[in-house]
Amino acid sequence: MSEEPATKATAAETTTKAGDEFYTFADPQAQVAYTQMRRAAQWVPFLLPHVRSGMRLLDCGCGVGSITLDLAEIVTPGETVGVDVDAGQLELARAAAAARGLGTVRFEMGSVYELPFADASFDAALAHTVLHHLSEPLRALKELRRVLAPGGIVAVADDDFSTWVVAPEDSAMHRVMTELAPQIVAANGGNPFYSRHLRRLLLEAGFARTEGHAVAAEQYGTLEETRRFAAVSGRLLQNPDLVQLMLAQGWIRPDELQALPAGVQAWGERPDAFAAVLYCAALGWVDGETPSRS
Hints:
Elements: E1 16-18, E2 21-23, H1 28-35, H2 40-43, E3 57-60, H3 66-75, E4 80-84, H4 87-99, E5 105-109, E6 122-128, H5 137-147, E7 148-159, E8 165-167, H6 172-187, H7 198-204, E9 209-220, H8 223-237, H9 240-249, H10 254-269, E10 274-285
Parallel strand pairs: 3-4, 3-6, 4-5, 6-7
Antiparallel strand pairs: 1-2, 7-10, 8-10, 9-10
């Protein structure tokens, strides 16, 4: 969250507690399958022109490290550090780093609220699909600002759940993504719509200058992709914690919930199925002028 890579765990996300925060996307198998597919070129292209060899880079919420390792290859011989709250994913990240022969990257347990690093100790930082799970994203951004050195840059990206498009509109997947997903994230303490405000939040966190971006890396338009998306979503819809949450909140009747996984699977087999979501992203600079890329 190694079987066949699946897609993002979407609305069928479950609840896991890390420190004082509830993380909505908690099914380990589904989470590993999805994050293994992420690559820096598709998911954080707005950051790539600003990273270079010799930088020291931090990736918060690194998961299994697929984006982290791509960035590590760019900044080598500079050090890359990945931080996550999930020990199991960090072990997979370490194994992937060893397989790629990357000796300049390490992975540590840690919270974005209390990073175990000194002030001004990194040149660049990334928080990808992390902050929308948090009840205090501004606090996290201030912590990222603390660990960045003069001339440093941060990159942040999260999906804005209001931008989900799913066809056909009368499908079970449409209900999952456009109705249930934002309710689940909000009930678990996150904000499914915060990322459109990233430029403002970065300024409030103390960054001198910001730049907004949009990424449409998450899309499902082939039979292989819709099947994967449906498989992950269907698995998560049967998670006991998620089932309990949806029923307790009265968002869905028991009979509807029982039928929902099969409906999602049926959507995944349709030749006309399609789904996509927009990620709002932003860069923030510690200083007012763009750092030199020489």
